[in-house]
Specification:
The protein is mainly α and 184 residues long. The chain contains seven helices and no strands. Helix 2 packs across helix 5. It is flat and about 85 Å long.
């Protein structure tokens, strides 16, 4: 039964849907910033292109060669094994830390998505109410009752809901008689 319970929990948990909604909402927010970034890049592009054109390739090559020589000169074959083991342990710790951060970020985005869904639902419900009011305006009373009788009428309406009248159904014999009369 544990598998069935896990499956039921997985299928009824709305968090992944909220995460998707939160991701979509954040993507829309970031997409709104794109025109500003494009304008900024247009303004900075000529200066950056000139800087690249004016860079001496031999100077870049010499600087890179010096860095590579420095890195290879610092490598000690004896310490390489210890360093590899140390890096592996650090990697496990960093991976665990990133897993915790990923879960926290997932929860934050899911929470943002839940708020976004609530906002969207609120906006949609307001739009539906506006449409309903436009389509079916509330009928105004033709005659206003006296001020003293108004609370009594409202109290009676709240206590007893209006009963629906059953609709009259024609039987097939009556339908046949009606069509026979109409045909002659």
């Amino acid at each position: 039964m544990a598998i069935a319970d896990d499956l039921k929990k997985t299928l009824t948990d709305p968090t992944p849907l909220y995460f998707a909604a939160g991701t979509a909402d954040l993507a829309v927010q970031q997409a709104k910033k794109v025109p500003e970034l494009i304008e900024q890049l247009r303004a900075e592009a000529p200066a950056r292109i000139e800087a690249v054109k004016n860079t001496d390739p031999k100077a870049v090559q010499e600087a890179l060669t010096a860095k590579v020589a420095e890195v290879f000169g610092a490598i000690d074959p004896k310490k390489l094994g210890e360093t590899a083991q140390d890096l592996a342990l650090r990697g496990v710790g960093v991976a665990a830390e990133y897993a915790v951060r990923a879960k926290e970020t997932y929860d934050k985005v899911a929470e943002h998505g839940e708020q976004a869904v609530r906002t969207w639902r609120g906006e949609f419900s307001e739009e539906i109410v506006d449409i309903a009011v436009a389509v079916e305006p509330q009928p105004e009373a033709a005659a206003e009752p006296a001020a003293g009788s108004e609370p009594v009428a409202e109290a009676a309406a709240e206590e007893k809901p209006a009963a629906k009248k059953p609709t009259a159904r024609r039987t097939s014999a009556k339908k046949a008689a009606v069509t026979a009369d109409g045909a002659s």
